[in-house]
Amino acid sequence: MVDKSITVQTYALDLLKPEAIEFNNIFEKILASVDTAGIEFGLIFHNAGHIGTLKQTTDLTDLKAWREYYDLNLFSVSLLNSVFIKQIRPIAPQLVVVNITSLCGRSPTVNLAMYGSGKAARELFFKVLAIEEPKIIVLNYSPGPVDTDMFDSIINEAQSEVLKKSFKEVKETTVLTTEQTVNKMLEILENGDFKTGDTVDYYDRI
């Protein structure tokens, strides 16, 4: 349930074609519609993304698919994050940036070269942000195996039968709900027991 004191605004845009000017326009509309006096925190959660092509590396020969994957999963994120910082820093004393990452970006997994490479690139991008902007709180949060459409895509579409079987077993046993992992992320942010730029996995705080 959403707190009635919270105003929710939604904007639809095509992250396959990221444009800084479009992100700027959205933030300007938002800031023009709210009272910014007394704002203490500016928070952004980078969770938009796509699983990519689920094939072995030698079959990843579609350059258009590669470009679209990185446009959505890395380039749009970097542009949006830059605009967020420039627009919100003047009105919020403390900025918090959360990047939703994945174990697949740190541990090689069959058929997940496209997905994992994007996650790895994003994670490093935000680690660099943390050292360049030490006053910004940056968290790379790895949510664990979560019951989402992505999970089903791997089970149904992966080239590797071994990978399909592995994910199916997790889905039937230890998969997490979105509520479980979001609550853990909020707990980590509230406790603040991490160094800015750190990668924290769901299971690191069990």
UniProtKB/TrEMBL annotation:
Q: Where does it reside?
A: Cytoplasm
Per its UniProt record, what InterPro entries does this chain match? Answer: Biopterin_syn/organic_redct, NAD(P)-bd_dom_sf, SDR_fam
GO cellular component terms given for this protein: cytoplasm
Q: Which Pfam families match?
A: adh_short (PF00106)
One MF annotation (Gene Ontology) recorded for this entry: sepiapterin reductase (NADP+) activity
Which keywords belong to this entry?
Cytoplasm, NADP, Oxidoreductase
Give GO BP annotations, semicolon-separated.
tetrahydrobiopterin biosynthetic process
What's the protein name?
Answer: Sepiapterin reductase
Question: Which species is this record about?
Answer: Rhamnusium bicolor
